[in-house]
Amino acid sequence: MTGNIPIKILNAIQKAGTEIVETGIKGTEQVLSTVITGQELVGDIKPMNEGEMAKARAEEEKKQEKMSDLRSEMSGQGRNVEAEIEKIVEEKKRKEEEDQKEFLENIKRQREAEEAERQNMSEEPVNNKREAAKRQFAPGKKKKSQAPDPTSMSATSEFKGGKID
Fold first, then answer.
1. Element (H or E) spanning 113, and its range?
2. Do 92 and 86 contact (CB within 8 A), yes or no?
3. How far is the C-alpha of 99 from the C-alpha of 140, rounded, in Å?
4. Residue 159, helix vs strand vs coil
5. What's the pLDDT band for 165 if we cut at 50, 70, 90?
6. CB under 8 Å to 154, separation ≥6 — which residues?
7. Is residue 43 classed exposed, middle or buried when 0-12, 13-18 and 19+ CB atoms within 10 A define those classes?
């Protein structure tokens, strides 16, 4: 009985392997049936004769020559980076000068306006007596110009007004 078991296991593995292969073949057949062939894709294409083939090769060579000429011209020209940098620096410098000039003009206009205002103020007639009369009765403490009291003064500035600091 023990010799029978390995044979049964091998037979079961063989059956499983054949089933896997059969399902793989069926899947492959389905995939192949859905694949579009070149003939189906292109349709009515007839092969080129020797004259057409030579003409197509000549056109292709012309295209390749033009492309190589364009590449050589592009590599020869390149960008003039130094000139571009100089142009940008010059433009930046010009813009800064314009900004500075505009700033100075604004200051000049402002000073002229202030000067005109001062001129207008100085041209107005001022009545000194009237201004003094206005200040005469202004509320607030009036300052008196008196000599300092000798008692509030001290040579050592320890005593002021008879009080100790």
1. helix 81-123
2. no
3. 51
4. strand
5. very low
6. 160
7. exposed
Q: What is the DSSP string of 17-80?
A: HHHHHHHHHHHHHHHHHHPPPHHHHH-S-----HHHHHHHHHHHHHHHHHHHHHHHHHHHH---
- Show the CA angle centred on residue 8, arms to residues 6 and 10, nearest 5°: 70
Residues 161 and 150: beta-carbon distance below 8 Å: no
Answer whether residue 99 shows pLDDT above 80: yes
End-to-end CA distance of the chain: 128
Q: What is the value of pTM for the model shown?
A: 0.30
**Confidence (pLDDT) at 7:** 86
Q: What is the pLDDT of residue 130?
A: 73
Interval 135-151: pLDDT, tens:
666 666 666 666 666 66
